Every structure is written in structure tokens, then in C-alpha cells.
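Q: A reviewer asked whether we had any structural model of the full assembly, not just the individual parts. We don't, so I'm hoping you can provide one. Inputs are below.
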Amino acid sequence: MTEPILSLRSINKSFGPVHVLRGVDFDARAGEVTALVGDNGAGKSTLIKCVGGSYLMDSGEYFFEGRPVSVHTPREASELGIEIVYQDLALCDNLDIVQNMFLGRESHTGPILDEIAMEKAAAGALASLSVRTVTSVRQRVSSLSGGQRQTVAIAKSVLWQSKVVILDEPTAALGVAQTAQVLDLVRRLADQGIAVVLISHNMNDVLQVADRIAVLYLGQMAAIVDRKSVDQQQLVELITTGRASTAGRATSGTV
Amino acid sequence: MTTSDRLSVTEEPDTNGDAELAAAASTAPIEGGLGDYFRTYLQRIRSGDMGSLPAVSGLIVLVIVFWSLRSNFGSLANFSDLLKQASPTIFIAMGLVFVLLLGEIDLAAGTAAGVCATLMARLSVGYNWSWPFAIGGALVCGVVIGTGTGWLCAKVRIPSFVVTLALYLAFQGVTLFIVLNGAGAHGNISISDNFITNLYNGQMDPWLGWLVGGVAVIGYALVKLQQVRSRASAGLTAEPVALVAVKVIALAVVAVVAVYLLNKNRGGTGGSQLINQGGKLVLVKPPALQGVPWVVLITLFFFTIWTFVLGRTRYGRHVYAVGGNTEAARRAGIRVDLIRISVFVISSFMAAIGGVLIASNTHSVDANTGGGNTLLLAVGAAVIGGTSLFGGRGRPADAIIGGLVVAVIANGMADLVQGSNRDAIQYIVTGAVLLLAAAVDALSRRRAGAAGLG
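A: Here is a predicted structure for the entire assembly that you could use as a starting point for your response.
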């Protein structure tokens, strides 16, 4: 088993009296898709925001590539190579694909934007993911479909050579065909050697694309199971009760 | 079917509609010749992205209507007057474009112009400051006002509508205070500094007009060709040279015609006059009134700068990003607060220049300078030109086109309707045009939403 690139140990986080994360351990490995599942309020978003630097954890250890690090701002997280693709994608409709992919990190010579370098790099990143759905990288994002938008948001992480990409419900708003496209993309992202964390409510998606599944239950890590050792029913049981009655217990709680 | 084929994203973009839509939404050159460009342009208009087309066609229609109704409208003197009259509105509107790009509003831009103009007059007339310092003082005052406004909006988080509405009132008081206090004349301050009064009223020597026109056309051509060359050499799709040529020639024709007409003597047609000069009678010809007004050069200068800033710099890109999706911009690490403050600084700075031009026009300032409908005409100009009130869409060029439309209406209506209802009709028509422009904005936005274009 490879060493995890991202590793969290005994994470605690409270909002006032509400103890949202209780001693959570979490790992993500390069080249693997780690699904993070759990019911509403289980603490998935809080955990991800702690990883991304939007929230500060109250206690716990944060290792990146084996080194202990502290992440206080989203910028520090992205400097480490952690990219979070939020559900609402955070794209500017009035800008084109290139402008969105480089937003906040534009290439420039002196005060002038280097449009040509940016356009080539963006096209390259999309090509490396075998994306053929967008005809022009100079298309405005407002003209893209939901799946294409998700594609752009994900390709951004390839462009910036992220090591960990966290996808928050990437298929929630998509139709059947587009969901299949995005899941393909998720797989290809992992095949490029990126550690992918997939947050999803959709058990089919998770079982289809994940290598490992981490189940949060009421702020605690109920189980981290291998994809091959669970079926959908057991997974639902883990999510709703925090326990698996039939299988997956062998790996439950292990890292 | 190979594995990679199966894995690849399978939604093919080969339907014609998709490709056309993509081209219409494209912000960069598309492949093909002039015909393809024209088709894409039509597609773009059909899908609601009309840009400055309504304003330009409106401008042409207005000019034709007024020209046919009033012989005087097409006179050389009136042509020059139109450009001058439009300039204060254009300057305030150009600053407002930045604020509107963020989906904010600066209702205080007009009265801020008044404060800066009266301050300049007080410094120049009351305290005998030379023009660079008096004008500099007005511009600094604009920057300070903008910083304060921006800080209240971005940091204290008061909606800009409320902040600037309050400042709109307060600045009228400040203007009144400056007019009534300090050294020099009170009430109505007459400006005697020749440089300041010539800003609006002066004209360039004819040769300088030709030089400015030439530099503008050649500069535009060089920038365009450089763009085409570097994109082509990088293997990216570039605009066809034929299209660039058409654009450059069109600009050259406009520049040559405008400079030629403005360089003709538009002074009075009266002949020479006998004048008593030191006890001797001499025959004096009236001075020739000719040349391109200085305001045209000043306008072109700021238009070029702001177009460059918005289109080619990171700052400009970030302004559009904050206007398009503030949250996305924030997550991308853009300092949204600083961008928000900066657009108010630019707005008030440009308003200060507008104020200086207003004062230069009338050779004086009083308590009403910058008040009245100064602001509304400027907002109207920006919106008529095609800047969206909803944020994210707009260019400095919109301010110029819209400013000309507003000036043409004011100028054309001025003696079209005589008698006591003159002002009433003019207000109503200007208001109606503004409503029309806002309706075009809202409808094109809705249409763009339906077509997936923004």
C-alpha cells in the first residue's frame, strides 16, 4: 500500500457547543479515488473545509506528503497542491474557459496578460483529459452545459498540477450521460497519479468509480472500506447506522 | 472500440447548432474567412449578445432624424459642439462603467464632479494656485472621495446604492460650502485661468489634429496586426487579415472625415471688420475657428488607457471576474475588497475630470455644478452604450457611444422644440431613451440566458 499523500489524524472541530468532527482520521492516496460519504450533517463538508483551509481545525494533525503542515487559508492549501472543486463550481459566466481556468493565477509579462501562453496551456490540460466536448477554449462559460462546466472546473486542477483534488458532489446536478462523462473524468484524473477525493450522495457513482470508501457518521469515521469488500446495501447501512452488520467490519476503522 | 475511446468523454460537439453557439460565445477569433465572421456575428446578435449595436444604430438614426428636421444640426460648428458637449458625460460614464461592471452603482459621481470642480475653481481663483496644482487638487479630491466611498461599500458593507445616495446629498452641501467660503469670489466663481478654460473650449492646431488621427489609426492597425501575427505563429486561430484590414480602413475613413471637417473654419461667416486700433482703422478678419477640440484628445487618451487596463491586464480581468461571480473570484484568491474600492476610486477620479470639463465649459462654477441631471445622463450613457446594470458586461467604449447618443439628443432637442416646453420635452425624451436602453439590457440578458450566452 502506498503512503497516503494527504493524511489527517484525530481531527476535532466544534462550532460553539456542536462537536462536528470527533477524532476523525482520513487518508487520500495518489492515483486512487477515495470516496467520502455520509448522511447530511455527518461532517463531510466541515472535514473538507478543514482540509482546504476554509476552517481551522480545533485539534488534530495534518500531514501532506508525510510532512506535518498547517493550513490556515485556502491559498496555503492550493500552494500545497490541494484543489477543491465545490458543488457550485465557482466559475465566472461572463469569462471564457481559459480566463476561468487561470482566474487569480493569470500568466503575464509585465502588466500585460499572456493570453497565448494561457490559451495553449488550457487547451493542453483539456486535451490531457481527452476532453472533446468543448469546441473552443475561448467559449464563454455561460454557453457550457453542466457537464462541460464540471469538466472545466476539474481540468483546472490538472492545469495547476494539483496533487490532491477534492470534488464536492460533482454529479449532483447532472443528467445520466453527463454523470457518466464526469465519472470517466474522475477516473482519468486518478490515473494521472492525482489523489482524488469524491464526496457524493450517489451510491452508484461511488461504487462505480471509488477505490476506497470513507464513511462519516455523526462526526466520526465509521469505516474506511475497500470498494471491493462492500456492496450497496452494506454501504447504505454504514451511512445510516454507522455500523455494518454483515461485512466490511474487517476493515472498519483501519487505515 | 479501444479502451481510451470508450473512456473518453462521448458527447460529441458535432451538431451544427452547438458549434455555432460555441463560436458565438467565443471571445477569441474563430476559424474561417470574412463570411464565417459575419455569420457568427449575426448568430451572436440573434442570441442576445448585441454589444454596442443598438447604441450605434440608435446614434445613426438620431443623427439622421435631427439632421433632416434641423438644417443647423449638421453644421460644422454643431459637429464640434456635439463632441464637446458629450465629453463631461463621457468621462463620468467611463468611470461609472467600472462600478457598473461590479454590479454596483455610484449615484454620487455627478455631485462628486461638482465638489472637485468647485475645489479646483476655489484653488485657482481664490488662492491663485496655478493650473497644474488646481487641477491636480481636483483629481486628488476625486481619488479621496472614491477611496472613502469604496471603503464604506467594501469594508463597512453598506450597499453602494445607499452609500452613494447619502453622498449624493452630502456632496451638494460640500459644493455649496466651497462656493460660499474661502478666499475670492463667493456664489459664482469665474475661472480666469486660460489653460483650464481651454480644456473644453480650445482646439488643436490643424496639423496636430491630423497627427492625432494618424497616430490613432496607425496604432490601432499595429496592435491588431501584432495580435494576429503572434496568435498565428503560436498556432492559434487568428482573425483573418482581411477583417483586420476592413476594420482599420473603416477607422481611417472615420478619422480622416472627422479631422477634415473639424479642421475647416467653422467660425462666423461674417466678413472682415473695421476696428479702431490705437487711433488707426484696420481691416481685421475674424479669427478662424478651426481644429479638433482638445477634449477629443483627452477622451481618446483615457479611452485607450482604460480599454487597455480592462482588456489586457490582470486587474481588468479581476474586475470582470468579481462582476461575473464574486464568490468565484474570492475563491480564486482575488482581493475582492480591493477591487471593489478601486472601481469607486476610478469612478470618482473620472468624475473629477468630468467636473473640471464642466467648469471649463462655463468658465465658472456655482452651487449647482455637477447637480441636476449630470449623473443620470452619465448612467444613461453607460447603459445606452451597452454596459449592463447587472454587472460583468461593459467596456469604456460604451461610455463614448452612449455619451454621444445623450449629447445628440440634448443638442438636437435643444432648438427643435421651442418655447416653454423645451426642457420638459428634452427630459422626457432622454428618460425614455434611458428606459429603452435598460429594457434592451434586461431583454438581451434574458435572451442570452435562454441561449446560454451571457
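A: Points you may want to mention in the reply: Residues 247-255 of chain A have pLDDT under 50 and may be disordered. Residues 6-94+163-241 of chain A form a domain with the Rossmann fold fold (CATH 3.40.50.300).
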